[in-house]
Inverse folding.
């Protein structure tokens, strides 16, 4: 029996290091890496000039720039605890002050790992914020799969966390967005020749008509005279704005985290 235990110990010593890093750490990523990201976002939100970012994250990698006093693109690579990938922070500075920022985690051609990591990371954000986000998929889209969850930041903005893959290239992308972005989702048109109105009123002008099964993004909702139906502010594939009445469309592409990558209904 003792000899058998020794043999098993030797086998485990050689086998376990060969297992995928994320598989071994998936139970911990929910909090460990989510806290790393959250701390990084907090530093990004309060920092404005390159010197403040260097104090927080160290020396950056400088990308293509239009000139030191015009627009600078600086990148930082932040280690993560649970995967052989880094959290890549990109910040654009316009005349020496922060203009925009984003974070990404690239899984190269391992899109499946990227999807599992997205779910685990969002579980961590749930524990940090106490907020359970719905997961929204937007169509039309270029990526094969693209889902987004949102979590409230202390600044009053939202952290948008997206997982997308195109041709099996998996990426998680994060940035801050304004309140209201979490209410964007896809609608499917239910009937033929459905009117898209100029205003949220059935007596207003019809700007175009939509075919059955057409998918269009709801950017905003308003109540109507009938409490069962909402008005949806939309923009069609040609960029034409308008409104669709709720009785003529149904929401699709809205999931909980457990079903984030299910097929569109």
């Amino acid at each position: 029996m003792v000899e058998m235990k020794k043999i098993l110990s030797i086998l485990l010593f050689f086998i376990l290091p060969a297992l995928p890093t994320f598989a071994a750490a998936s139970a911990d990523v929910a909090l460990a890496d989510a806290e790393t990201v959250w701390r990084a976002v907090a530093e990004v939100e309060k920092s404005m000039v390159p010197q403040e970012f260097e104090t927080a994250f160290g020396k950056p990698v400088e990308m293509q720039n239009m000139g030191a006093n015009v627009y600078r693109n600086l990148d930082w690579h932040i280690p993560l605890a649970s995967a052989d990938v880094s959290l890549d922070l990109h910040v654009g500075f316009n005349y020496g002050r922060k203009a925009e920022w984003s974070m990404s985690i690239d899984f190269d051609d391992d899109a499946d790992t990227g999807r599992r990591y997205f779910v685990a990371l969002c579980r961590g954000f749930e524990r940090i914020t106490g907020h359970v986000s719905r997961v929204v998929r937007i169509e039309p889209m270029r990526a094969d799969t693209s889902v987004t969850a949102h979590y409230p930041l202390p600044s009053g903005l939202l952290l948008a966390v997206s997982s997308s893959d195109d041709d099996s290239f998996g990426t998680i992308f994060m940035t801050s967005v304004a309140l209201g972005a979490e209410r964007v989702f896809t609608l499917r048109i239910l009937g033929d020749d459905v009117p898209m109105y100029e205003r949220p009123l059935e007596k207003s002008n019809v700007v175009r008509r939509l075919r059955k099964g057409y998918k269009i993004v709801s950017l905003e909702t308003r109540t109507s005279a009938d409490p069962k139906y909402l008005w949806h502010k939309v923009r069609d594939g040609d960029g034409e704005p308008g409104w669709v009445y709720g009785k003529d469309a149904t929401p699709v592409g809205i999931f909980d985290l457990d079903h984030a990558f299910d097929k569109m209904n």
Summary: The chain has a mean pLDDT of 84.
